[in-house]
Amino acid sequence: MAGFPGYSALAPKTKNLIMAGGLTGFVFGVYYYTMRAVGGSDELQVAIDKFEDAKRSSEAEASLEPKP
């Protein structure tokens, strides 16, 4: 593997810090992308709210009906 010129001349601790920085940047990039993709729409929350409203109204209607 050719690698980057001058990378092999660095101390092992420096190589580890460079690798840690790259991996940390990658993880935060994936996290940011995921949060933007998931948090972009509230379609699921709107559907949940509609379902809960329908459930409440049907429960209210059931409690108002006279029991035989």
UniProtKB/TrEMBL annotation:
Domain of life: Eukaryota
Positions of transmembrane segments: 17-34
Keywords assigned: Membrane, Transmembrane, Transmembrane helix
Cytochrome c oxidase assembly factor 3 mitochondrial coiled-coil domain residues: 13-38
Name of protein: Cytochrome c oxidase assembly factor 3 mitochondrial coiled-coil domain-containing protein
Organism whose genome encodes this protein: Anisodus tanguticus
